[in-house]
Structures are given as C-alpha cells and as structure tokens.
C-alpha cells in the first residue's frame, strides 16, 4: 500500500501504562487530565505528570491524544479555557471531543488537531462530513457500525479526514456509551466520567404486587447479567479495515493494567506489521489471538462488525473476567555479560515454576526458574514480597520493561 501504516492507538491510564504502551508498539496514546474526560476513576494525569508524559511520548516518537469527551453541564466548563491553553502550550497532538461547545472553544483557542469522540455517536456520512466542515481532523466512529457501513462512510468522505475505529476492548450496552443507568441507580453520571457500570450487575425481575417473589430471566432462577456485553476483539479482521482505508485502530482500556496494555498492544502491533509484511494469514492470526487471550478479558465478540449482535453477544452468567495468566514481574535491568536480571516482583512466584518472559520481540521466552536471590544474595524459594527486587541468572537477552507471566493452573486456581 502507498499510504502509511494504520495507527495503533493505545490507552494510557497512568505513567506506567503509558510506558508499557510505548514499549510494546503504540503509535499514539490517549489519556486524560483531571477533568473533562470520561474515566474519572482512572488515575489520570495532573498537569506536571501530563508534561512529563507528553515529553516521554514525543521523545519516543509517539503522539498524545487527550480525552475531553464528557457531556458537560455549565458547571463542568469551569476552567476549560485555561486547561485548553495549557494543553496547547505543552504540545499535545490531538483532543478527543464530543460536545460542540468544547469543540468550538478548542478550535478558537488552540492549534491542536480536533478528533470527534465515539461519544458523539457518529454513524453516517453526512455527520462525518459535517464535522469535517467544522474543522475536525479525525472522526472516531460509533461502535454500532458494521464493516459495510464503515466502508460506505470511508468511500464518501474527504480523504484528508482521518477515520478511527475501535478494534479491541470493553463494549457498552448503551449507544456509544451514552448511558443514564449509572446515574439513575447510583447518582454517578457516566456521561461526566463516573460510570458505576451498573450494566455489569446481576438482575432478576420483581413484580410490583408480589413482594419477595423474584422471576428469573434464566431458567435456573438465579438471575442474569442481562446487559453484560462481551469484549470486542477484531484482531482477525484487521486486513479488511486496513483495506477499507481506516487510519487508526483504537484499543479500549484506560482502566486496565499495564500487563493488559502490554499484552494487547504487542499482539495488535505484530498483527498489523504482519499484514504489511504479507504474513497476515490464518496461522499468524491464531498466534496473536492466543496472545490477547493471555490478558484478563471477558468472552470475545465481533460486536456489530457483520450484523447487530444477537443474544450470544452478552454474558448472562457472570460479570467476572477470564484470567489465564498472572503478571508476576517486570525486568528492571539486565546485564548481558553476567546474564543477571533484576526483576521487580508483582505477584507471588516460586522456584521451579515454568514462566514466560515477553518484550517487543515477535516471540516470548519460556523457562523454568532454577535460581532466585534477594538483594543480599540469599537464595530464595519464593518471591512473595510486593515489588521486591529479585535477582536471577537468565541465559536469554532481556530488556528493561520486559514482563514475566505465568499460566494459571486451573485445577488449583
């Protein structure tokens, strides 16, 4: 293809996850400050941290997109002009916006690229072209579109307007996340960044005139998670979206762990690269699908990609995640001459266990732990102190930031 590679856009809930996204192959990251974003419960970035984050990303050739996609009331607009000026000064690359008022202020006060959020529920060509005429650089399409509809939009919109689509992560029962359920049930407004995820709760039917009688939605009578969506995964559909002319693939997950970010971003990075190298085939796709399954996730779905999801697009039994691997450590340093690695412990692990280490190389390294020492040089049988530095001799070239994972023994879990 003549065009540049499609952009891989990663979530960055805090500095650790930002560094993971950068190391494992993101072209750009999206994150939020303390205000105006839709993930109030993420750690997010204060101003000093944002300055450091933008510098770190830019030093590594990665672009920074800032979310300002709340549905604001007047009280939410306090301080927005000062905040916009600050973002312009520190050189952020794009603002993700859903509200026309915030859009107009950002257009007036900054020189930053303006991206239209999925919260704007853009589902048709006319709306995409409207935002282009208003000055948008990119439109992030609503997740409720099929591949056919995405192609139709791309074919009938200006080529210099960028189109972004979600390819992986949590789905929402409501239209592009525009939900009042959390606010109604808990007073926490999802449209202002404080969703309680009431759609993930367990429900039964209770008839008003029959107190104490609960009517099961499932035949087992224990209730059901009737609004609990599966997670989106399109790692086996990337070729169709690239050939449709999509400019950016977005991974959801600013509330997820650095292990999740590293695992998923690495998998999509290598899958995208495989496409451009001519190696995006059934075997390669299965390899990277197996990798994304190693991150904590719900069951996967293709969402609206081919048609509207049927009943199998939901999970009725539980809202818990599938965990096949534990994140047990991070490489802090490695001496190639002595083969000594310094590992920061993240979850308990034992001498004699089989583990995997992965970085941004195409493959991962499997080995059995046959030596462990503490900072005093004393031999260890178990690493069970949070963030303790563990010393190991590992005959494999490692890099700072590589991660250690261990398959969970389902019989003993």
Provide structural commentary.
The protein is of the alpha/beta class and 413 residues long. It is built from 10 helices and 20 strands. The protein has helices at 15-23, 47-59, 80-90, 100-109, 125-134, 147-155, 181-186, 238-243, 258-276, 282-292; strands at residues 7-11, 28-31, 63-68, 94-97, 113-116, 138-140, 162-169, 205-206, 214-215, 231-233, 248-251, 300-301, 325-335, 340-345, 349-350, 354-358, 365-368, 382-383, 389-393, 403-407. β3 (63-68), α3 (80-90) and β4 (94-97) form a beta-alpha-beta unit.
Summarize the model shown:
This protein is an alpha/beta fold. It has helices at 15-23, 47-59, 80-90, 100-109, 125-134, 147-155, 181-186, 238-243, 258-276, 282-292; strands at residues 7-11, 28-31, 63-68, 94-97, 113-116, 138-140, 162-169, 205-206, 214-215, 231-233, 248-251, 300-301, 325-335, 340-345, 349-350, 354-358, 365-368, 382-383, 389-393, 403-407.
Overall average residue pLDDT:
86
Report Rg.
Answer: 23 Å
* Helix amount: 25-40%
Structural class: alpha/beta
Contiguous runs where pLDDT drops below 50 for at least 5 residues: 219-224, 313-317
Termini separation: 47 Å
Coarse shape: globular
Topology pattern, helix = H, strand = E: EHEHEHEHEHEHEHEEEHEHHEEEEEEEEE
Strand order of the largest sheet: 1-2-3-4-5-6-7-11
Number of helices: 10
The counted number of beta strands is 20
Main beta sheet strand tally, sense and closure? 8 strands, parallel, barrel
Q: Quote the beta fraction.
A: 15-25%
């Amino acid at each position: 293809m003549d065009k540049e590679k499609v952009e891989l856009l990663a979530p960055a809930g805090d500095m650790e996850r930002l560094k993971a996204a950068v190391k494992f192959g993101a072209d750009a990251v999206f994150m939020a400050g303390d205000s105006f974003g839709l993930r109030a419960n993420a750690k997010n970035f204060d101003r000093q941290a944002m300055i450091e984050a933008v510098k770190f990303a830019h030093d590594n050739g990665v672009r920074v997109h800032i979310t300002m996609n709340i549905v604001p009331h007047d009280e939410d607009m306090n301080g927005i002009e000062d905040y916009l000026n600050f973002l312009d000064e520190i050189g952020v690359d794009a603002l993700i916006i859903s509200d026309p008022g915030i859009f107009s202020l950002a257009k007036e006060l900054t020189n930053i690229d303006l991206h239209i959020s999925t919260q704007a529920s853009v589902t048709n060509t006319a709306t995409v072209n409207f935002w282009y005429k208003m000055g948008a650089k990119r439109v992030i399409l609503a997740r409720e579109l099929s591949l056919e509809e995405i192609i139709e939009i791309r074919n009938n919109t200006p080529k210099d307007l960028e189109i972004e689509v979600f390819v992986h992560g949590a789905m929402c029962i409501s239209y592009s996340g525009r939900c009042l359920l959390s606010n109604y049930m808990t007073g926490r407004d999802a449209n202002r960044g404080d969703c309680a995820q009431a759609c993930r709760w367990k429900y039964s039917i209770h008839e008003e005139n029959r107190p104490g009688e609960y009517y099961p939605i499932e035949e087992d009578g224990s209730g059901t998670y009737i609004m609990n969506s599966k997670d989106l995964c399109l790692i086996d559909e990337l070729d169709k979206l690239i050939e449709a002319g999509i400019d950016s693939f977005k991974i959801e997950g600013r509330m997820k762990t650095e292990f999740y970010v590293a695992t998923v971003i690495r998998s999509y990075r290598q899958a995208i690269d495989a496409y451009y190298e001519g190696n995006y085939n059934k075997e390669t796709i299965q390899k990277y699908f197996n990798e994304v399954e190693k991150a904590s996730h719900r069951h996967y779905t293709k969402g609206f990609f081919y048609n509207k999801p049927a009943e199998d697009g939901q999970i009725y039994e539980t809202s818990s995640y599938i965990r096949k691997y534990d994140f047990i450590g991070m490489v802090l340093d490695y001496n190639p001459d002595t083969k000594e690695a310094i590992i920061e412990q993240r979850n308990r692990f034992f001498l004699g266990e089989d583990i995997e280490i992965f970085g941004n190389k195409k493959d991962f390294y499997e080995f059995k732990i046959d030596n462990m020492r503490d900072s005093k040089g004393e031999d260890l049988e178990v690493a069970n102190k949070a963030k303790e530095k563990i010393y190991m001799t590992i005959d494999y070239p490692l890099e700072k930031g590589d991660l250690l994972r261990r398959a969970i023994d389902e019989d003993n879990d």
